[in-house]
Design goal:
Structural class: alpha/beta
Shape: globular
Order of helices and strands: HEHEHEEEHEHEH
CATH superfamily: Response regulator
Strand order of the largest sheet: 2-1-3-6-7
Helix content: 25-40%
Distance between the termini: 27 Å
Number of strands: 7
CATH architecture: 3-Layer(aba) Sandwich
Length: 146
């Protein structure tokens, strides 16, 4: 989904401005988890990640399915987490991701004002509507922390 954002909005925590942030292939061969209760958003992100080289993208819409996906023997390299799941809060999943060493980024319609995102200051935050380039920069930033 290509939304409109001002230059100031793009210069958020997701944008590190490093020289390799737009380099293709940083997701090559990786396994990714997408947790979003809006199917069309999850499928759009799946397409973006696969286009950027991800080998496998698992899309789930709720916490139970996300927890089940984490039980797989093959670990995820990175996760894209929608903070607000239509009344449920995805924050309970974050400790399981951290225990497994899976870096994550947040998606939120509340932007950087979302107090839940502030609990994890190292996790990049991507505002909805998101831009593809900002989403990929955030993922690359999260992956550098692995």
């Amino acid at each position: 989904m290509l939304g409109t954002q001002s230059a100031d909005a793009m210069a958020n925590r997701a944008d590190t401005g490093g020289p390799n942030d737009n380099a293709p292939g940083s997701l090559d061969g990786l396994r990714c988890l997408v947790l979003d209760d809006e199917l069309w958003i999850a499928l759009d992100i799946e397409h973006i990640l696969k286009s950027a080289g991800a080998a496998e993208v698992t899309c789930v819409a709720n916490l139970a399915d996300a927890a089940a996906a984490l039980q797989n023997d093959v670990p995820f390299a990175v996760a894209v987490i929608d903070i607000d799941l239509g009344g449920s809060d995805s924050m309970t999943l974050l400790s399981a991701l951290q225990e497994r060493g899976v870096p994550f980024i947040f998606l939120t319609g509340m932007g950087h004002d979302d107090p839940r995102a502030r609990l994890y200051p190292d996790a990049p935050v991507v505002d909805k509507p998101y831009r593809v380039d900002v989403l990929l920069v955030a993922l690359r930033r999260a992956l550098r922390k692995r």
